[in-house]
Specification:
Low-confidence stretches of chain B: none
Distance between the termini of chain B: 55 Å
Strand content of chain B: 25-35%
Structural class of chain A: mainly alpha
Structural class of chain B: alpha+beta
Radius of gyration of chain A: 16 Å
Helix content of chain A: over 70%
CATH class of chain A: Mainly Alpha
Oligomer: heterodimer
Mean pLDDT of chain B: 82
Number of domains of chain B: 2
Order of helices and strands of chain B: HHHHHEEEEEEEEEEEEH
Mean pLDDT of chain A: 85
CATH superfamily of the largest domain in chain B: Rod shape-determining protein MreC, domain 1
Shape of chain B: globular
Radius of gyration of chain B: 22 Å
CATH architecture of the largest domain in chain B: Beta Barrel
CATH topology of chain A: Arp2/3 complex 21 kDa subunit ARPC3
Shape of chain A: globular
Largest sheet of chain A: none
Low-confidence stretches of chain A: none
Chain lengths: 168, 271
């Protein structure tokens, strides 16, 4: 348990630093950035204290906001993703999730891709909706969501594959 | 009563979610309507320290370009100096110019240009007498206006911020308008409310108008790239190509107008 706690604390700090120092400055084609800090929310243990989880996600978004001077955009997006995660888990993994026996290292690639894709799209859509904050520019919101999502999903899959400790 | 307590207990995570959502949406709305967020800004010691550390590494990658820029600026300044020596009747009295405005140099430790509301962070703060609402320029033109400050760091509301409005004018005539950004390309900003009778041509230089106490008159902004009449058919909307490459900034100067308090006092006493 102690070990688990330290892993998540380190992940929290490292992902925030990576996000603000590296991934927010990529600006691929001028504006496309990945938001890989949601990896923390994606990989948070399934068995959790719901309220604590919501609060930690909110806090993470808020810290990113403070770094990026973006008001409360990341906090909102992270909070929405954290709230909606149980439903997505249920949809992606079905029975495995019901039995609370889910280990992210042991699930197959397809399911993991579905799970990460849905969460990323929800996060990015909320993020750009609040960032652009203008319903008449909905096309721009969708366009940014699509491009950034592709970038984020690719990176998330890569990172989870590299750091997974699969024992066969 | 019992039922209310039960309802709260049953839905406690949802209610908590709603509470946090209200907080974050409130912060978002605040950041969109008022460009100096009170609480959420990167002018504090932790974020400033992290960016400073990151910048101390990444600034090495741009050394060559920075040298080129300095070289360019030196050449430009030298040519101005030579010109002024030749014709001493130039319009500006250089002694009064230097006493009225105070320049402080600073380094950008965080740049951003891909959002709708962009802020920069610089490594000078209130202990270097940086205050809110001072103008920030680079060797090539305007950058933005100081937002929040703390003792060591300050945020700059970039001209690439949809809430930022700066007064600008044509260099050849004195017709002035409002510079703002539509959030699309970091290379262009928009100059609106230019009178219809203005004679615009592509390539005209746009400068700051000096109508506020933030920027002195004549700071370079950009050049006219295109223009069209707005919806009322009375004013031009001008697309301005910035002289500054906002995606590649390192050293900036902060302008302080020493008469600013005098001007502001005068304005307040008039009200």
């Amino acid at each position: 348990m102690n070990n688990l706690l330290s892993i998540h604390t380190v992940r929290f700090v490292v992902l925030i630093l990576l996000q603000v120092l590296l991934f927010s400055n990529i600006n691929f084609l001028g504006y496309i950035n990945p938001y890989i800090y949601i990896l923390f929310i994606i990989l948070y243990p399934v068995k959790n204290n719901r309220i604590l989880f919501l609060f930690i996600s909110f806090l993470m978004g808020l810290i990113i906001d403070i770094f990026m001077d973006s008001g409360g955009i990341n906090a909102t997006a992270a909070l929405v993703v954290a709230f909606i995660r149980p439903a997505v888990l249920k949809f992606s993994f079905g029975a495995v999730y019901e039995h609370q026996a889910l280990k992210f290292n042991n699930i197959d690639f397809g399911q993991r891709l579905t799970y990460i894709t849905i969460l990323t799209f929800i996060h990015h859509f909320t993020y750009f909706l609040f960032e652009i904050f203008n319903i008449s520019k909905i096309i721009l919101v969708l366009q940014n969501t699509l491009f950034s999502s592709i970038f984020t999903i690719t990176l998330c899959i890569l990172i989870t594959s590299i750091f997974s400790t699969k024992s066969k | 009563m019992q039922q209310i307590v039960n309802f709260i207990l049953r839905n406690k995570s949802f209610l908590f979610f709603l509470l946090l959502l209200c907080v974050s949406v409130g912060l978002t709305i605040q950041s969109h309507s008022y460009h100096k967020s009170k609480f959420i800004n990167s002018a504090n010691n932790v974020t400033g320290g992290v960016y400073n550390l990151g910048n101390s590494v990444s600034s090495y990658f741009h050394l060559k370009e920075e040298n080129d820029k300095l070289h360019e600026e030196n050449t430009r300044l030298r040519s101005i100096l030579n010109n002024q020596m030749e014709k001493s009747e130039t319009f500006i009295d250089s002694t009064s110019y230097t006493t009225k405005y105070k320049f402080t140099t600073a380094k950008i430790i965080k740049n951003s240009y891909s959002l709708q509301n962009n802020y920069l962070t610089i490594n000078k703060g209130s202990r270097d007498s940086i205050k809110q609402d001072l103008g920030v320029i680079s060797s090539k033109g305007i950058i933005g206006i100081i937002g929040n400050t703390n003792s060591k760091y300050a945020t700059v509301v970039s001209i690439l911020n949809t809430t930022n409005k700066i007064s600008g004018q044509l260099k050849k005539t004195n017709q002035f308008g409002t510079l703002s950004w539509n959030g699309k390309s970091p290379r262009y900003i928009q100059l609106s409310d230019i009178q219809k009778n203005a004679k615009l041509t592509k390539g005209d230089t746009i400068i700051t108008s000096g109508r506020s106490s933030i920027f002195p008159k004549g700071i370079l902004v950009g050049q006219v790239e295109g223009f069209k009449l707005d919806a009322t058919k009375n004013y031009y909307e001008v697309e301005v190509l910035l002289f500054n490459d906002m995606t590649n900034l390192e050293h900036v100067s902060i302008i302080e107008n020493k008469d600013k308090t005098l001007i502001n006092n005068l304005l307040q006493s008039n009200e």
